[in-house]
Write a structure and sequence with these properties.
Radius of gyration: 19 Å
Structural class: alpha/beta
Strand order of the largest sheet: 6-5-2-1-7-8-9
Largest sheet: 7 strands, parallel
Distance between the termini: 36 Å
Length: about 325
């Protein structure tokens, strides 16, 4: 059973033992071993009171650390939401990195769900925002291996029959190598970001490009908490079912003013008509929100406009 943490995790905490030359070495890290144990003991319903209590204590501590880091210290937390399947080097991936960099340069703290795709890109951009490293060149580097551009695994492919499936573990390892290499190369210039992943989707390991990891067992607590923490606003990049869930969960928090009694900005990056044609959600949200609330929602394909819209918001006192 994983002990109750004393702070948020770093990538060294989660990935100590990962070696680029050893295929499948993630399985022996804290992150990998915890995912396997959590899977064997029941991801949704723990198989014993001891396991359930341990997870609850762990997740409660993580929530406290996030609150202290992001609210008590006066940060301006802003989240990027988007699909885990966004290919490295794709327009969506580059847009996520550029927006995250723009937000960071304006003093906002970037949060994501901590996983692959648009989430990884957000950490890449924010990580390098205050450095002299060219973000475009960093994206070119991380996407150089054409067979490691897209996250390779589905939900039920990594743990099979009570253990890790070797071929899936090898695919995951190849996908991890470019991100770990970039994390090592940029460690000295990394700007702070926070990833908030979950072992419920532990087949998607956290990105090493985040400087802080608040990893949870319970996805429902993690999901609601991530949206609530992002009081300075959320930028929704193209995504599918998971991103749609986050949109309407955030919409409910805003509609009921359940976080700091306020409506925080919602920005929809409508690349290639993703939110206007593929998933035409605007009429639903405009029917839900009051007229004055609609001024807190931005629909745009312009990256600079997205950043400026979020930056204008002033967080109310708690």
């Amino acid at each position: 059973m994983i002990p109750v943490p004393e702070r948020m995790y770093t990538r060294h905490d989660l990935f100590d033992g990962w070696e680029p030359e050893i295929v499948g070495s993630w399985a022996d890290t804290l992150d990998g071993a915890t995912y396997l144990e959590a899977t064997l003991h029941g991801l949704r319903a723990p198989d014993s009171a001891e396991v359930a209590t341990g997870r609850s204590l762990h997740d409660t501590a993580m929530t406290r650390f996030l609150h202290d880091r992001l609210w008590a210290q006066g940060c301006r937390p802003t989240a990027l939401m988007g699909g885990h399947a966004a290919e490295r080097g794709s327009p969506t991936y580059r847009a996520a990195a550029d927006i995250a960099a723009g937000l960071s340069r304006r003093g906002l703290t970037v949060l994501t769900g901590g996983g692959p795709g648009a989430m990884e890109a957000g950490h890449l951009g924010a990580r390098l925002a205050l450095s002299t490293v060219d973000i475009g060149e960093a994206i070119d580097d991380i996407s150089a291996d054409v067979d490691a551009r897209t996250f390779p695994l589905g939900v039920n492919e990594l743990v099979v029959g009570g253990g890790f499936e070797p071929e899936a573990l090898a695919q995951l390892h190849r996908w991890q190598i470019p991100a770990f290499r970039l994390a090592d190369q940029t460690a000295a210039v990394a700007n702070d970001t926070v990833g908030i992943p979950t072992w419920h989707y532990g087949h998607e390991p956290p990105t090493p490009l985040a400087t802080h990891h608040a990893k949870y067992f319970e996805n429902s607590i993690r999901e609601d908490g991530l949206l609530a923490l992002a009081v300075n606003g959320i930028v929704f990049l193209p995504g599918s079912a998971g991103t749609l869930q986050e949109i309407f969960q955030d919409a409910a928090q805003n509609h009921y003013r359940s976080v700091r009694r306020t409506f925080s900005p919602m920005v929809f990056l409508d690349l290639d008509g993703h939110w206007s044609r593929t998933f035409p959600i605007r009429p639903v949200l405009e029917a839900l929100f009051r007229e004055e609330d609609r001024a807190m929602v931005c629909w745009t394909a312009d990256l600079d406009e997205a950043v400026e819209f979020v930056d204008r918001f002033v967080i109310p006192d708690a």
